[in-house]
Specification:
17 strands, six-stranded mixed β-sheet
Length: about 475
Amino acid sequence: MPSSCSPPSCLPRFSTPRTDRPSWGPAVAQIADRLGTPLMPWQRQVVDTALEFDPDTGLLVYRNVVVTVPRQAGKTTLLLAVMVWRAVHEPGARIVYTAQDGQAARKKWRDDQVPALGRSPLRDMYDVRFSNGDESIRWRNGSLHEVISPTDRAGHGRQIDLAVVDEAFEFRDHRLDQGFSPAMITRPEPQMWIISTAGHADSTYLKSKVEKGRDAARDGLTSSLAYFEWSAAQDADPSDPATWASCIPSLGHTVTADAIAAEQSSMEPAEFERAYLNRWTQAAFASKIPNRSWEACAHDVSPSTDDVTFAVDVAPDRGMASIVVSDGDVFELADRRPGTEWVVSRCIELADRYNPVAFVMDAAGPASTFVPDLEAAGLRVETTGPRQMAAACGRFYDAVVNRRVKHTDQVDMTAAVAGAATRKLGDAWAWSRSSSAVDISPLVAATLALWGATTLEREAQAAAPVFAY
């Protein structure tokens, strides 16, 4: 079993990249040292990036910071160091802390934050009020650190410089944003930290933050939103210590492999994966397609060999690729393997066997890199832009829900449908690879194959000459 979690093996799955801008991260690290809880590598990565500031204005670059990590990773010590730094660094700062409910927030504040401060060299720099409704740390420099209940009026009557939301997976709506945003809008450098372990099907608030954060991280955005996620790959073995080392950044620092093994043996498997692998339950990112409709479309017939269309899609990390074939009435996963080096040669082989109408790929997707090689091999390739992708997703959805199409009930395809998330695309929607709980390349390829088998065939027919007799 691994005895430690070295930085190379415990990198976040999604993260905002560090730039060459200066950062207040080292100052937070100094505060953490004074609190007796030196930052672990993952915590240092977060603060170094999240607290970057514009060298010209001196203002923080990121207004929102979202962090998702497994349990017992060190969320509490990270948040306390950030809140204390803000209070000490900025005289008169207004800081609020909340958690899943008012009682839980007060308990964490009273049992964890206040005692940690009391044991530190900073204990003479503030006073604590414990009175009900006025639980707060009042710093001698005028800064105020309050604990409040999470409601849509949480920020009413306040001005807030730093808002911290702990255990965000518990929230079912966006009332916190409604409460905090007006209280932060006029502040010169407001920042909202949202930190949590992965959620359940009804963790709608955190789910929306995760979807936006993953997309921002994948796009390499370096302003407004900083996002960090340590989680296990969906196909990683939950019982393998190597999986733990890949996603538990506190392993070898404050948590041992023996402790994780004990937790796994005593917990329900799904809850262990959520709590310690930071995996969302599949239902949390449930597909738009009802399970009953999907099951009703299952059939034991494969697509015909005439006038078929193939489609190719690749996972965002290029770890898996899928090829799907459809004749317009049935679709089937023709091949799915790790990596991508096999895709072009397999497409050529399939083209020789089936003489398909076309191979379809998303022009903005990872599989678009195959287009030049496939065209050079003499294959007809069609790529979809945003409008066609939205139409393809709508067509696929309608076909399945109205039970006008059949599939061969393959495990990988069903898993993709069950774990698929969506994203907005204009006034429509499309499948979201980065936000899904599983590799959805089989589903995306099926969507494009069905679109090609119907749309491209109809276009060919419409272009054919019509003879009058």
